[in-house]
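User: structure tokens for this one?
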Amino acid sequence: MTDTAQPCDIPVYVVVPPRVLLLDVAGPIEVLRKANLEQKTVRFSATYIGPSATVGSSIGLAVTGVAALPERLPDQALVVIAGSADAPMENNRPWDEEERAAQAAIVTWLKRAIRPGVRLASICSGALLAAEAGMLDGRECTTHHGCMEDLSRLAPTARIRDNRLYVEDGERLTSAGITAGIDLMLHIVAEAAGHACALAVARYLVVYLRRGGSDPQLSPWLEGRNHIHPAIHRVQDAVAADPSRDWSVASLARLSGASPRNLSRLFNEHTGMSVTDFVNRMRVALARDMLAGSRLDMEAVAMRAGFGSARQLRRAWNRLHDSPPSAARTKPAVVS
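Assistant:
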């Protein structure tokens, strides 16, 4: 997505339950705040809602100014349900009737308010409220590892995935414990505002763009970016911005401020691949996008992606994919 695209507003409603885990709110919404600063085509707005205007948090700090649960949500809204702490720092006691009533009010509201066209994302134990409202029935989902049994009980038809940072099933998105909410929101930002924006936000927050053991393969535009070395990021940003350019290790070394030998060593150390491998991955990713969205023949795609010939493209492609390049033409073609 580029800054020349039509501006898009995404309203985000953050459900604040009793005993809210503060990081479940602060982490994901900080991602959105920074995403707003990184680009101008997508604007995320956050409204904090719940059954109570003031809520106690997991660390004893009160959250105030919480708006009432709205009667109706706008189209394309994103609802984020934060999790709760069983044992807050300043309130390690059993749940009382008022807190239980607040949870029940959230469940009732979810049943009424969530409709097609409204996405629902849960952070940590927030999945339990979504499950109790029937939002996860028959869906793939996940939650904090300590809540798996409760989730199974509340959503017996759900396909619960463990050892996952987050799971997306249509308009239902669920994440694992606490900081995984940041990973989920980075994923949402990447879809809405582009991978470059998500990368910039992740680097600002000094977090990895991670994935669990059985997560879908990470986008090739994000592979090898789980590090915080500024010189390597500078090289990767340059290649990703123009993969078809005639990049050599020497030219990239000058860009990084390192010698070619030192750049090669640092690149392998921090990305797990060589400089040449990274360049070819970017070119294959660009070729894949062109194959999916144009009627260009294979030779033209290869040349525009930076390969000398279709044969070179196929050779690089086969190192990364089991299926041939022609299999990428799965979307309806458009005139280039």
